[in-house]
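Limitations

Structures in this collection are predictions, not experimental determinations, and the ligand pose is part of the prediction. Treat each record accordingly. The example that follows, with tryptophan as the small molecule, is included so readers can see exactly what is and is not provided: the inputs are given verbatim, and the output is the predicted complex.
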Amino acid sequence: MARILTGVKPTGTLTLGNYIGVLKNLKSLQNEGEMFIFIADLHALTLPIEPSILTKNSIDIACFYLAAGLDPKKNTIFLQSSVSEHAELAIILQNYLYMGELSRMTQYKDQSIKLNQNAIGLGIFAYPVLMASDILLYDVDTIPVGEDQVQHVELTRDLANRFNKRYGDTFTLPQPLVNKVGKRIMSLSDPTKKMSKSDSKGDIYLLDDEKTIRKKIMSAVTDLDNTIKYDVNKKPGISNLLTIYAALSDCSIEEAEKHFSGCGYGDFKKEVAEVVVKELVPFQERYQEILSSGAYKEALEEGAKKAKAVASKTLLRVKEKIGLVTL
Ligand code: TRP
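Predicted complex:
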């Protein structure tokens, strides 16, 4: 059975974009393979973050996964930091990625421009090493990621190849699976930009209340020609709302266009808001229940145990290959 692995960094509040692009996708993947889903809390430390926020975000994400319908019995859901093999393998693998290739990574380049040169932690530079460890520990075939993470998966493949050539077959080569076009949800205030968890305007957060959700959608930026058509270049705002509607109503963009043909923008937005509210309000109720009952703890403990069983075997294999004495 195919193995799928994905991680999310608990650095911000998740948005409707994460819900449609990640949570809903994962739910549909859970019958296609064995899934490892983790919260990349060690990666969250690569940029400054308040401890209380890191804790809250990590717990929230676990509850979101469960509230979205991911079955903790079928899937392995865990915190990266509770499976110490991730950090241990990273210490080994850091020797097989080179300074040159790490400094050419887009994410590192973007972030190092924003940061004070004297205050860039080693962790942000070595980010791809830890990410490669996350992936290679589980002999994974498929990594569902956003476009911005493809480069990391490719570097992981390079590393795995390099290691396998030197020590003989050790790691499975992972394949990135980029979310299908049309699943990219854009900001409501600037539909040419991705709806991202670090940008507060134009985002619908998963815990926004009903009134806020409706208000944000009703004030989404559109255009002046008053026809509801999917055209990302000419009509990014309308296309984004059609994408949201189609994703949440499980219909195609064409069907959504047909459904709204002849409709005014006001009524269109009202109906989009309605499907979002219908999806998110019950989701929020499940989230609250999972949070207050503490059900997430059990799931994470169970997940860490299952993950560790797989990860410790891989780590042992690696140690033996490179000549570390294992007792
Ligand atoms: N870097 C990913 C992100 O920022 C999170 C992540 C960490 C990840 N390790 C991973 C994703 C391994 C997939 C596989 O979104």
